[in-house]
Amino acid sequence: MNTLQPSEWFPSLLVPFFTLSYPTSSPVDPDSFHDSQYYTTGILDGCLIITCIAVMAVLRDITRIFLMEPFARWKLSRDWQSSQREKLSANGAAVGVSNGSPNRPSLQNGHTSHGIGEHEEFTMSKREARRLHRSVLRFAEQGWSFVYYLVNFSYGVYIHHNLPTRAFNPTDLWLNYPHIPLPGPLKFYYLTQTAFYMHQVLILNAEARRKDHVQMMAHHVITIVLMVSSYAYNFTRIGCLIMVLMDCCDIFLPLAKMLRYIGFYTLCDATFIVFLISWFVTRHIFVIIAIKSVYVDSVRLVSEMWAPERGNYLSGPIHKGFSLLLVTLQILQIIWFGMICRVAYRVVTGQGASDDRSDEEDG
Question: What local confidence, expressed as pLDDT, does residue 363 receive?
Answer without folding.
Answer: 41
